[in-house]
Design a protein that fits this description.
It comes from Clavibacter michiganensis. The chain has 140 residues and is mainly beta. It is 11% helix and 31% strand.
């Protein structure tokens, strides 16, 4: 009785499978169960009663999503020690966000504090300090 050997996969089939897998990875196709990472950022600033205190912060993803956060204690900001106030913000994804500081409660263009624009990187830290005349920095 003749022996029947199982058919081996040819190298062409293996190469084709690798090319398809590589194409899916190169186009960024994610599995259906992949979720967008969400995390909280704590934004803090010091308020001394001066006219140029940061009273609101605009956080933008550089695209269509932006959030204006009032940093006034009565509007949900938490009062900390030494005149600092803090507010928590939920962000999605790991991209950098732009932060703009304002001296009014509603992120009004006319009250933008020149020099305060900067990037916030959620993967670098969760606590950030915003200022009236310089970019945000990691809060220690």
């Amino acid at each position: 009785m003749p022996r029947i050997h199982p058919r081996r996969k040819s190298s062409g089939v293996v190469v084709a499978a690798l090319l398809i897998s590589g194409a899916l990875l190169a186009t960024g196709t994610a599995p259906a169960h992949a979720a967008i990472a969400a995390r909280y950022l704590d934004i803090q600033t010091r308020q001394t009663g001066a006219a140029n205190d940061v009273r609101s912060v605009l956080i933008s993803d550089g695209g269509s999503r932006s959030t204006c956060m009032s940093m006034v204690v009565g509007d949900g900001a938490e009062e900390l020690l030494d005149d600092y106030v803090s507010k928590r913000l939920l962000v999605y994804g790991d991209q950098a966000y732009d932060a703009f500081s304002y001296s009014d409660d509603h992120c009004t263009d006319g009250y933008y504090l020149i020099g305060s624009k900067g990037s916030i990187h959620p993967w670098a830290a969760i606590r950030w300090s915003v200022y009236s005349g310089r970019p945000p920095r990691i809060a220690y």
